[in-house]
Design brief:
Layout: E1 2-10, H1 14-26, E2 33-39, H2 46-53, E3 58-61, H3 67-76, E4 81-87, E5 91-92, H4 100-108, E6 112-121, E7 136-138, E8 144-146, E9 149-150, E10 153-154, E11 165-166, E12 174-178, H5 179-184, H6 197-207, E13 211-222, H7 233-250, H8 253-276, H9 280-296, H10 301-309, H11 323-329
Parallel strand pairs: 1-2, 1-4, 2-3, 6-13
Antiparallel strand pairs: 4-12, 5-13, 6-12, 7-8, 9-10, 11-13
């Protein structure tokens, strides 16, 4: 069994593999570390690229596009390692020791289930990247934000968040997780398809009493939006739908009705913002997400019961403030000012 398997899920990403996989290979030359590319039934030349340009890298071929969540579940069933590192195909590595600090921390902190490095943006390399920055959090209504990124405001990385800290969630763009914890929590929820699936998994891990941390001594650079571009109605639909499903599964019983009651008017305001800016497709996507949530909710009742029965974590699941209030009404743009 390997110490660590770096598993890159790919779908129609031949150009991304050519551009970024060499950096992963170059900087991952450690004993006990393997790199695996799991292909979600790509229709482009991804498999040809892997066969002809990266013949030494193991490829796991999936028979259809299962999305990010179930794609990883099916790929990881074919991987034997103490740790998995889920890595997006548009991540560039520049440090030879990018794995060491994370593995050393995990080896010496057995109560930690998973960690992430610091994530910076390839487009503007001095800035944090949207999907994970320097660790993720959830506000009182379940809206995600990061140390270094509040809503759409990206901070410049000046070392202000270079301490190792506990976080609410670690980004799926570069997620190092113990394999036993991954499966004990049930893995990623394949019904999510993509978006919010790693936050949902991290929430379940914390409910089980496991910790999550950001280790900013390692930095990776992420392009972002390689599969679904920012502003895509499909992305909006998945984000809203999956966030509601995540809340339904994981919120403590005392908070469930109150949070979902508040979320409806807040999400309607978000939809109206799309409408007044002329973005009719994203306006519709919010309401399509709500319809899908109510249609799918019954399928998650048993999951909710099981998760809540296994709750061993006494600490708060979220912050005690609303990130929207602080961003829009108080003008907070930096995590340090929260």
């Amino acid at each position: 069994m390997q110490k660590l398997s770096v598993v890159i899920l790919n779908w129609n990403g031949a150009d991304m593999l050519r551009r970024y996989l060499p950096s992963v290979i170059c900087h991952s030359q450690m004993e006990g570390v393997e790199i695996v590319v799991a292909d979600n039934a790509s229709q482009d030349e991804s498999l040809t690229v892997m066969r002809e340009e990266f013949p030494g890298i193991r490829v796991v071929r999936l028979d259809q596009n299962y999305g990010f969540a179930e794609g990883y579940n099916r790929a990881l069933q074919q991987v034997e390692a103490e740790y998995y590192l889920l890595l997006n195909n548009d991540v560039e590595i520049r440090q030879d020791d990018w794995l060491q600090s994370m593995l050393q921390y995990m080896d010496t902190h057995t109560d930690v289930a998973a960690c992430q490095p610091k994530i910076r943006w390839l487009v503007e390399p001095q800035k944090f990247e949207y999907s994970g920055a320097s660790g993720g959090y959830l506000d009182c209504y379940g809206f995600p934000f990061c140390r270094g990124r509040i809503l759409s405001a990206l901070e410049t990385d000046m070392g202000q968040y270079d301490t190792v800290v506990d976080v609410h969630w670690a980004t799926g763009c570069s997620l190092l997780i113990r394999s036993k914890d991954y499966w004990a929590a049930g893995g990623l929820d394949g019904r999510f398809f993509a978006h919010m699936e790693e936050i949902d998994l991290c929430w379940r891990l914390r409910i089980m009493g496991r910790r999550l941390v950001c280790i900013p001594q390692t930095t990776v650079w992420h392009l972002g939006g390689a599969t679904l571009a920012v502003g895509s109605p499909r992305k909006t639909y998945l984000n809203f739908r999956n966030n509601l499903l995540m809340l339904f599964k994981n919120l403590p019983e005392d908070d469930l009705k109150r949070v979902l009651c508040w979320r409806r008017p807040l999400d309607i305001l978000a939809a109206l913002h799309f409408l007044v800016t002329g973005d009719w497709k994203n306006f519709k996507a919010v309401f399509q997400a709500y319809r899908a949530f109510h249609r799918m909710k019954a399928d998650f009742v048993a999951d909710r019961q099981r998760i809540q029965q296994g709750r061993v974590k006494a600490q708060p699941d979220r912050t005690d403030y609303c990130i929207l209030w602080r961003y829009y009404l108080r003008g907070v743009r930096r995590y340090a000012d929260l």
